[in-house]
Amino acid sequence: MIEMKDIVKSFGNVHAVKSGQFTLKKGEIHSLIGENGAGKSTMMKLLYGMYPIDEGNLRIHGENIPSITPKIAIEKGIGMVHQEFMLVNELTVLENIILGFEPRHGITIDFDKARKTVEQYISQYGMDIQLGKRINQISVGEAQRVEIIKTLTRGANVIILDEPTAVLTPQETRQLFVILQNLRKDGKSLVFISHKLNEVMEISDRISVMRQGNYIGSVNKEETSPSELAKMMIGREVFLNMEKTQAKPGEKVLEVKDVWVSGEKEISKIRGVSLDVREGEIVGIAGIDGNGQSELIEAITGLRQVEKGSVLLDGKDITNLSPKKIRKGGLSHIPEDRNTRGLNRSMSIKENLIAVSVSEPPFCRGLVQNQKDMLEYAKKLSEVFDIRPRDPEISTQSLSGGNAQKVVVAREVSIGGKLLVASQPTRGVDIGAIESIRKILQEVKSKGMGVLLISADLEEILSLSDRIVVMHEGRITGRLKAEEANEDNLGLLMMGGAGPAEERGSTT
C-alpha cells in the first residue's frame, strides 16, 4: 500500500528525519515507535502531505508520488487521526464528520443521506457515537471515534493514528482496539504511532523503530518483546518495571482540606477535595487530563486562588500564599509544562539549576554573585542527574526534551524540603529519561520526603504510588492502596464509575 524510502526532512538546522524507511501492507496494523524526537510523527505527517519531503521516494499503491499535499493524500485514500483532534466544538458530531465534504441535494446539505452513510460505518465497525450531540458534550474516546469515521467517509483505506491512546482510559483503549481490529478485518491498513510498548505488542502485526531520525529496523510482533523494542529505541537495556521501595510513612507533610477552586472549564472545577501526603511515601493522583488535576496542583503551589477550604504544609496553613513563600515552607514543584513554568529556555543550564536559590548563599553574598560556586554546583548536578551535554554554560534551548526535564527535576529535588509535587514528570520525555526520573522519585521517597505524583500514565501511577487518589470532574471518586489498584478499577473511577470515596468506605 505504502512505500517510503530514504526519506530526509529538515526544519532549518534541525534534522528531523535523516534516513526514514516505512512500508505498509494491505490489511495490517503496523506500529511506528521511537523516542520523542525520533522522527516517527514527522514521517507520517510527510506521508499525509502536511510537510513537503526534502529527499526520498514515496510510492502509494505502487505509484510514484513526486509531491504530496493533504488533498492528494485524501484522494489517494489516506486519512490521519491527529493527537490533537481537528473538531469544531460548537458543531454536532454529524456536522463535524461531513464538514468540507457535505453531500448536496440541490443547493442544500443532504443531512438524511449523510446520516445514513455515517450510520453504516457505525454499525459496520462497532462504533458508539451520538450524531446529534455537539463535540463539547461528548467524551474524549467518542471524539476519537468521530475522527476515525471522518477518515472513512472521505474514502480512507489507510488510517494513521498518532498516539491514539494518550488520552484514553484502559476501557476506552480496549474499545478502540476492537474498532481497529474490525477495520483491519475489512482490509483497511493502519499505522499506529505510540510509545506504549505493551499496547504496541497487543495491537500490531509489524513494528518499525526509529531512533534520532534514522530507521533502525522492522520486526514481526511474534519475534520481539517490549524489552527488545526498548533496546532498539534507545540503543541499550532499559528497566522501567523497577522494584518499588517499601514506604515508611511518617508525619503528614501535606493536608488538603475540603478545597474548592475555579477551573479552566466546568469539569475541572475543584469541588471539596481532601487528601494528605506523609513523609516517605508517594501518593499518586490518577485521572483523565482536564478533570481538575492541574487546578488542584496550582492551588497547592500558590498558582491559583483557593475559594474555600485550606492547604497545610508541614502543619502550617499556606492557603493562598505566594509561590515563593510556599517554596520557603519546604515545597518543591516539578510543573506539568517545563517550557512555560519549569525553565527559562533562553538561559543556561547553570542559571536554570540555581534559579530558586540564586539570591542566597553560597551563590550570592550581598549584591555579588559567586560564579565559581554556581558553576561547580551546576557541574555536580549535571553529573549526578546525567544531564547531557555536560556543559552547564549552554542554553537549555539546545537540550532534548528528556535532558531539559532532567534540569527541572535536578533543581527541584536538590533543594530538599518536605514535599515534592511532581506533575507529569515524564511527559514528553524518552524511555531512558523516564527510567532515570522514576528512579529519582523512588530515592526521594526513601530519603523521607513526601511525594505527590500527578500522571496521566496509569502504568507510572501503579508502579510508583503507595496510595492512589482518583479524580473525575473535580472530585475524588476513589482512594486505593497500591495493592488494591489495577488498570480496570482505576479506569472505572477515572470515568466516574463509582461514587465518592466516602460513600464507598475506601481507605484514606
From TrEMBL:
Lineage: Bacteria, Bacillati, Bacillota, Clostridia, Lachnospirales
Major subcellular location class: membrane
Keyword list, A-Z: ATP-binding, Cell membrane, Membrane, Nucleotide-binding, Repeat, Translocase, Transport
PROSITE patterns cross-referenced by the UniProt entry: ABC_TRANSPORTER_1, ABC_TRANSPORTER_2
Domain ABC transporter residue range list: 2-237, 254-498
Membrane topology type: Peripheral membrane protein
GO cellular component, one term: plasma membrane
Entry-linked SMART domains: AAA
One MF annotation (Gene Ontology) recorded for this entry: ATP hydrolysis activity
Protein name: ABC transporter related protein
Organism of provenance: Lacrimispora saccharolytica (strain ATCC 35040 / DSM 2544 / NRCC 2533 / WM1)
Superkingdom to which the source organism belongs: Bacteria
Any single Pfam family the record assigns to this protein: ABC_tran
Compartments it resides in: Cell membrane
